[in-house]
Structure formats: C-alpha cells, structure tokens
Design goal:
GO molecular function, one term: arylsulfatase activity
InterPro entries: Alkaline_phosphatase_core_sf (IPR017850), Sulfatase (IPR050738), Sulfatase_CS (IPR024607), Sulfatase_N (IPR000917)
Protein name: Steroid sulfatase
Shape: globular
Distance between the termini: 79 Å
Family: Belongs to the sulfatase family.
Largest sheet: 12 strands, mixed
Keywords: Calcium, Hydrolase, Membrane, Metal-binding, Transmembrane, Transmembrane helix
Strand content: 15-25%
Length: about 600
C-alpha cells in the first residue's frame, strides 16, 4: 500500500516525489497567505496614518470680525487709553499687519468681499446709488447663491461651519421662507445672530435734514428779496416734513420689531432683538460650538455687532472705560475675544487653530451724538474713515495667530486685503479654488511664514460702492506704494475729517471732486495723505499714473455685468418677505432665546 504525502521526521515514505511536490506547494501557499496578510496590515496602517495626518493637517479656523473698529483703537496698534488686553495678547502670539485693507469702506460690500475673496462689484454687492446698504430686512437683495464662500469650500472638505453674530448680506429672494441669501444657504451649518442692522438716519434724519435746509434757504432768500417764493411751496415743504415725522413715529412703533430680530438657523428666536447681555449670549454660543466640535475640524466666524451704532454694553462694562459708550463697547468686545482664546487653550486646540481678527472697515468718524459725544472710533494717524477710501476708511487691524506655524510677535507692513482670507483658508483646508471665476485674494501664508517678504498684490483697486475710486500700486523691487485717486469726497464742514452734513460720504455727483490727472500719493512716505505729488515733486509722475491707469483698464476688462443686488427694486420693502415670529400682523414679538439656547446643537 502506498502512502502519498505522509511526512514523518522530515522524510516521505512511499510516493516520495509527490510528497516533495506537495511540500513545496504547501510552503508557497503559506508564504503567499502571509504576504497577503502583511500587505493588508500595511495598507490598514497606512490608511490610519493618512487619516490621522489628514486630521492634523486640517486646522481649525476662528475668524473674528469687528464692525467699524478703527485701526487706532486696539492697544497693540498704539492706543494707550482703551483697554484691549485680549486683542493685544492675540497680537503678541501671532502676526500683526499694519497694512490690512478692507475691500470696501462700507459694511455690506466689505463683508461680501471677505466671504468670497472677490471685489464686491463682481457679485453685484456694490450700489450705484447713494444708498449702499439694505434699509429693510424684507428687501430681496443679498449675496447671490451663485457666489462661493469659504464656508462652502470648507463644508465640502468635512468641516463643521458656523456664523455667530452679524450677517448683513440679505435674507430671502422671492418669499420669506426661501432664505436664498441666508448664511445656511452659503455653506454655514449653524447660524445664530442677526441678518440686519438699523438704518434710522437714512430713513428719517437725512430727508428731514434736507427739507429743513431747503426751508431755511428759501426763507432767507425770500426775506432778502432775492427770490419770490409762493406760500404754497412753504406749505408743501411743511407738509412733507410732517409726513417724515409721522413716518418717524411709525418707525419707532413698528420698524425695530420688524427689522431687528435674532435668528437661530432658520427660526426667529427674539423679536425685537434685546441688547441685554447680547455679547455674552453670542460669545457663550460660540464657545459651545467650539466645544461641540473639538474633535473635528471646524470653521467659526464670530462677527461682532460692536462697534456699529447703536452702541451697547452689559452692566459689567457700562461706564467703565475712559471713552464713553464707545470705549465700553470696545472693551466688552475685547472680553469676548478673550473668552474664545481661553476656550481654545482649555481644549488644547490653540496649536491647531488659525485665529484671525480684523474689522470690516475703518471707524465711523461722523458718529457724533446730539450732545457731542463721539460714538466713532480712532483711525490713528490716517485720514478719513468709514464710507471713504482715504486710508482711515480702509486700513484696519489685521492679526493672525497660529502657534508653531506663524512666528509670534511679527509685524508686517506689506499691503494685504481682507479678500486674502478666502484663498488662505481654502488652501490650508485642502480645498482647490473655484476655476470658473476670478479670485482677487491671495494666499497669505508665504508672507506670514517669512517665505516671502512681499505681498502678492502688485495692484489693489479701491471701490466706493460701484465706482472705482482709487488704485494702489506696490511695484516690484521698490519700497514705494503709490495711490491714485480718481475722485475724493467733499468733506463738510471745510477742514473737517469727514462728511458730517450727510453723516457718511457719498460716491458720485455733487458730493465728490473729480481729479484729472488723478491725485497721486506715495503712501510709504506720506501715510497721512497730506501732500499730493506733482510733476515737479515727482519726476516720474506721468509714468506712474499711466501705469496705474493701464492696470485699472485691464482690471475693468475682467468685470462682467451681474444683477445689481442694491438696485431700487431690491432695496424697497416687500411685505411678502417680511419675517415675523407671530401671525399677528405688524405686532411681531417673541423671546424664545433661552428655551432654544438650552437645546441648541
């Protein structure tokens, strides 16, 4: 009897050749099996390593945006009397930019540029009229859904995204429930804040001011016998003034409840909005968002209501500063910044979080109360302020911190823009930039990490709403920063630092002075913009202007016609878009903040 494949003490008995063949085959199969297992294990380890590396390489982002804060307000920018220890602490741990520029000197277009990395004229968020903001919450204009925000890009990369605070970029398009302009339609998973701020002066005070001036002018001319003014003209003007005053009474009764409300995601939670401990409430919600997402990459945009009027502060800060209501509000905002930094430290997230702090434009220098108290901030040494493109209107604080990645305590003076946050955040999150549109921002990381010592912006274009107001040129291999104005606002009264008669400066018509040739400054030598250059003082005067005008022409060729989001049709109040937390007509009143807050996600 033959035994095939029976092995004993290393030998085979009858049928030895077959036994050896079986032995070699068995060994080969065992080696192959082991190789497959090892390959599988290696692939698994590689997958785990890649996943962990990917998680580490996806930093968190906390973007802090103040409203109307001047570059001269924080202590780290030279203020000796306004206490901002937490903003200063942020600056000590990161990079302070001395030449961060808002893409627009007004809230709405500036915020649109910040969110999209594009000049606001590209998205239709630049007004062609004197009204550069939405007057009603029930307006149909806003940031178009076709625009891509950095929140959309990061959400596609797996980030949790939230906007807490001020949105100010529209709500709905066709009905009050479509919320086409709402933050949740622009890439944010979570929203808690307000979509609108008040515009009382535009609605009431400016028309009343115009009527009063007209009445007084006609009365004086008639008294001097220079003009014959029929009595009916005076009657019509008095009647018009009465209508405006009547409108004011209606405004006080209805407008604030209708226009000023807090939302949490898609629902109104407080109408009218209460300022009581508002900063504390929004700050606590921001901290909770960070805590909920501590183990996943997140984007938090905390958009402060400070320092826009109406100024407010809680009892812990009211009356405590050396700068009245403005100082109280600024110090409360600084406290909020500190709370967010503390949460990042407590959760050990600081080393994997890029924190950015800035303002949407310069301080509003014309904000003065009837009693003469200044409710606007400081733009330091710079001329002008909010609503104009003098340096005071667009040069804002710019602080970025990322421990271990960005050098602490560094100061840079290269021209950068708030549009630069878009490509910077996108690249760090691993997201490609959209290829179907022009992105005007530039990645900041080479500059922040010292890999480059020059801004990628050779030219920057400064718009006053729809109109190209000025061009900035930082030539290669030169320290000069040229700035050419095509027109400038008419400050009033003469010698003032703002347009106090109209409360803000306007962008065209009788309110501006046009310059041909353009008004030219070297900002590197004359940051206060006091001494315009001439062909005599600057031999290359015409050459410089020619280069800048050619750059402006090339830029204009990249612009496309888009729907005007601030047209009259988009600005007017539309009853069918009016949001209300109750069904009782114009009497919209509710307060569900506490109940909803306890169960928020």
């Amino acid at each position: 009897m033959f035994w095939f494949g029976v092995e004993r003490r290393g030998h085979c008995y009858p049928g030895r050749k077959k036994c050896l063949f079986w032995k070699q085959t068995h060994r080969t199969e065992r080696i192959q099996f082991f190789a497959v297992k090892m390959r599988t294990l290696l692939l698994l380890l590689l997958f785990i390593y890649e996943a962990r590396s990917h998680a580490v390489s996806m930093p968190n982002f906390v973007l802090l945006m103040a409203d109307d804060l001047g570059i001269g307000d924080p202590g780290c920018y030279g203020n000796k009397t306004l206490r901002t220890p937490n903003i200063d602490r942020l600056a000590r741990g990161g990079v302070s930019s001395r030449s961060t520029l808002a893409a627009s000197p007004l809230c709405k277009p500036s915020r649109a540029a910040f969110m999209t990395g594009r000049y606001p004229i590209r998205s239709g968020m630049a007004s062609r009229s004197q009204v550069g903001v939405f007057v009603f919450s029930a307006s149909s204009g806003g940031l178009p859904h076709s625009e891509i925000t950095f929140a959309k890009l990061l959400k596609n990369q797996g980030y949790s995204t939230a906007l807490i605070g001020k949105w100010h970029l529209g709500t709905s398009c066709h009905n009050r429930t479509d919320l086409c302009h709402h933050p949740l339609s622009h890439g944010f998973d979570y929203f808690h804040g307000l979509v609108f701020t008040r515009a009382l002066r535009l609605l009431v005070f400016l028309p009343l001011q115009v009527i009063t001036i007209t009445l007084l002018t006609l009365a004086v001319l008639r008294w001097l016998g220079l003009v014959q003014v029929p009595p009916c003209i005076f009657f019509c003007l008095f009647f018009l003034a009465a209508l405006v005053l009547g409108g004011l009474l209606c405004f006080l009764h209805y407008f604030r409840p209708l226009n000023c409300f807090l939302m949490r995601n898609r629902d109104i939670t407080q109408q009218p909005m209460s300022y009581d401990n508002l900063t504390q409430r929004l700050t606590a919600d921001a901290a909770q968002f960070i805590q909920r997402n501590a183990k996943t990459p997140f984007l938090l945009v905390l958009a402060f209501l400070h320092m826009h009027t109406a100024l407010f502060s809680s009892k812990d800060f009211a009356g405590k500063s050396k700068h009245g209501a403005y100082g109280d509000a600024a110090e409360e905002m600084d406290w909020s910044v500190g709370q967010i930094l503390d949460v990042l430290d407590e959760l050990k997230l600081a080393n994997n979080t890029l924190v950015y702090f800035s303002s949407d434009q310069g301080a509003h220098v014309e904000e003065v109360t009837i009693k003469g108290e200044g409710h606007g901030g400081s733009n330091g040494i710079y001329k002008g302020g909010k609503a104009n493109n003098w340096e005071g209107g667009i040069r804002v604080p710019g602080i970025l911190r990322w421990p271990g990645v960005i050098q602490a305590g560094l100061e840079i003076d290269e021209p950068t823009s708030n549009m630069d946050i878009f490509p910077t955040v996108a690249k760090l999150a691993g997201s490609p930039l959209p290829e179907d549109r022009i992105i005007d921002g530039r990645d900041l990381m080479p500059l922040l990490q010292g890999r480059s010592h020059r801004s990628d912006h050779e030219f920057l274009f400064h718009y006053c709403n729809f109109y190209l107001n000025a061009v900035r040129w930082h030539p290669q291999n030169s320290t000069s920063i040229w700035k050419a104005f095509f027109f400038t606002p008419k400050f009033f009264p003469e010698g003032a630092n703002g347009c106090f008669a109209t409360h803000v400066c306007f962008c065209h018509g009788q309110y501006v002075t046009y310059h041909d040739p353009p008004l030219l400054f070297d900002i590197s030598q004359d940051p206060r913009e006091r001494n315009p250059l001439t062909p005599t003082s600057q031999p290359r005067f015409r050459e410089i202007l020619e280069t800048m005008q050619e750059a402006a022409a090339r830029h204009a060729e990249t612009l496309q016609d888009v729907p005007n989001q601030l047209s009259l049709g988009n600005l007017i109040w539309k009853p069918w878009l009016q949001m209300c937390c109750s069904s009782s007509g114009l009497f919209c009143q509710c307060d569900w903040e506490k109940q909803v807050g306890r169960g928020s996600h």
